[in-house]
Amino acid sequence: MIKAVDDVSFSVKAGETLGIVGESGCGKSATALSILRLIPASAGRIVGGQIRFHGENLLEKSEGAMEQIRGGKIAMIFQEPMTSLNPVYTIGQQIVEAIRLHSPISPKAARARAIESMVLAQIPAPERCIRQYPHELSGGMRQRALIAMALSCEPELLICDEPTTALDVTIQAQILELLERLQTKTNTTVLMITHDLGVIAELAHQVLVMYAGKIVEYGDVERLFARPLHPYTQWLLACIPRISGAILPLPPARMAPAPNEAPPACAFAPRCTDAAPLCKQKMPELVPVDTSYAVRCFKYSTLCHQEQKKTTANTLST
User: Fold this and answer.
1) Is the distance from CB of 135 to CB of 3 less than 8 angstroms?
2) Per residue of the chain (318 residues), what is the pLDDT tens digit?
3) Going by DSSP bridges, is the β-strand pair 286-290/293-296 parallel, antiparallel, or unpaired?
4) Could you tell me which residues are beta bridge partners of residue 286?
5) H or E segment at 159?
């Protein structure tokens, strides 16, 4: 059995944004898809834990109940709109379909609500856009159409799976500004998945750093940017280009391990210049630094301190 996501636990407060960050293959999207139970049965399954929404475990819900939650109470915006939108239906048909799946209203009323959601997503000339097909829109407009579809049923939780990755930087800034404005207006809770720390700095209240399917650092976003604790987080921040041109140490040119190659010990140890022998023998636990911050590193764990004391005692006795 290969664990793509293991021992990942977090919570999001209503009206706030939690950012999940990490390089490709660390388990960000698998975590998001698991919340909505969208992992195909042929690809994987959830073998333990709970996914609680308003106190109810989503893993115990029937498929019919989950169909009402998906798109209704919890909506998701995917990375590439061209693969998320059906090319043979107009934008309006797809938004109206989503609305009528969750609301017993007439097609006319659903079309009116679709136009309202398109206005909310700042789509110009929504009466014209609602009749257009996905290929007739630019990448930025397609992403706005997905946002309009996600917001059309007024979800309480919006999961954004790298919604700006396929867009140029100007459109990225517009989409992020739009999401921030919409969250303020509708008080929607947002789960923002990205590998871009700039997005996290701009939108998130809390941040969760993942590596090889596990959480390595979790807590307040301002604290993380001011004083990151885990070596992986430090290197992620070191990769951000700086105008000053300051040369910062970067990680060795090794790839993160695939799920089937992850060691039973610390998965980051092969890339870490500060790795101790213990790091290559055991998996560190996620240690709370205080009530609102945690890190998975032996440097901050009681076990590490105990091992250091033993090593010191052995050295003195020798």
Assistant:
1) no
2) 888 899 899 999 999 999 999 888 888 999 999 999 998 888 888 998 999 999 999 999 999 999 999 989 999 988 777 888 999 999 999 999 999 999 889 999 999 999 999 998 888 999 999 999 999 998 888 988 998 998 888 899 999 998 877 677 777 788 888 888 888 888 889 999 988 888 888 889 999 999 999 999 999 999 999 999 999 998 888 877 666 655 555 555 567 777 777 778 998 988 888 888 888 899 999 999 888 899 999 988 754 445 445 555 554 555
3) antiparallel
4) 296
5) strand 157-161
Structural domains of the chain ordered from first start: 17-209 (3.40.50.300), 231-317 (no CATH)
For 162-232, strand residue ranges (E) read: 189-194, 206-211, 214-220
Q: Helix 107-120 crosses helix 91-102 at what angle (to 10 degrees)?
A: 110
